[in-house]
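Saturday, quiet lab. Running sequence design on the structure tokens for the scaffold JK sent over.
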């Protein structure tokens, strides 16, 4: 599968925010998890075997997905977009004495990176403890659904949408967006035994791996009496390996 890069504003979605994640038929005996990104990003669809049916409560998985997403966003902002694609387009300039927005920002907010005038947008997408959200952010975790990202009704949400779609005063002189959310939807088949080695993987691959960790755990637990080696599976170690991955 070719590398696919998606853009999103973060509004009511997973990366953009898991705007919706639902169970659907994944073929004979299988389960498919579809992450729907609204309004700007492509979907991520993950298919698993029938063993996914062993998991009745998806909240622990969704909590891990939120962690992965927020970690992804922090790196995206810290690198000013380089970790997920092209670096954010430079700020506009004009001849002295005014010098344009770049000069104004340097005077009033010295040293602040692009998209981080006050840090509110970055915090809304990349911060929040277990069950918590930063101002402007949103997160809803249910038994079989997840929403995480920006609250579309807030000024932060509108700000994120404007940058995602290259709209507003910041785009009067150029039309290249500076997406608050950008990620690869590529799912690369990798063994769980290798996740502890680190590296850089697509966000969709990391999400698929954390699902797989929980699925294997449920399978081992279900067959613990018949399989004497089931207890040898250290799911916590596997989970830690996935959570430490860098994503693009």
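Result came back. Writing it out in full:
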């Amino acid at each position: 599968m070719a590398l696919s890069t998606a853009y999103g504003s973060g509004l009511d979605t997973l990366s953009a925010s898991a705007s919706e994640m639902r169970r659907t038929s994944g073929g004979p005996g299988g389960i498919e998890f579809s992450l729907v990104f609204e309004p700007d990003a492509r979907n991520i669809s993950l298919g698993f075997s029938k063993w996914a049916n062993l998991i009745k409560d998806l909240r622990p998985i969704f909590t891990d997905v939120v962690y992965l997403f927020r970690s992804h966003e922090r790196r995206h902002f810290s690198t000013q977009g380089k970790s997920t694609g092209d670096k954010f387009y430079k700020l506009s300039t004009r001849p002295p004495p005014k010098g344009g927005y770049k000069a104004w920002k340097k005077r009033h907010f010295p040293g602040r990176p692009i998209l981080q005038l006050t840090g509110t947008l970055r915090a809304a997408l990349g911060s929040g403890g277990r069950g918590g959200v930063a101002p402007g952010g949103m997160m809803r975790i249910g038994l079989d659904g997840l929403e995480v990202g920006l609250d579309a009704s807030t000024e932060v949400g509108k700000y994120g949408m404007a940058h995602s779609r290259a709209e507003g005063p910041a785009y009067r002189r150029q039309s290249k967006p500076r997406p608050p959310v950008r990620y690869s939807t590529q799912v690369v088949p990798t063994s769980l035994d290798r996740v502890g080695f680190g590296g850089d993987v697509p966000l969709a691959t990391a999400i698929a791996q954390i699902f797989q960790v929980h699925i294997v755990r449920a399978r081992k637990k279900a067959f613990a009496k018949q399989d004497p080696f089931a207890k040898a599976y250290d799911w916590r170690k596997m989970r830690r390996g996935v959570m430490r991955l860098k994503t693009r």
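Notes for JK: The chain has six helices and nine strands. The helical segments are 59-78, 100-108, 120-126, 155-164, 203-222, 235-243. Ask whether to fix the surface positions before the next round.
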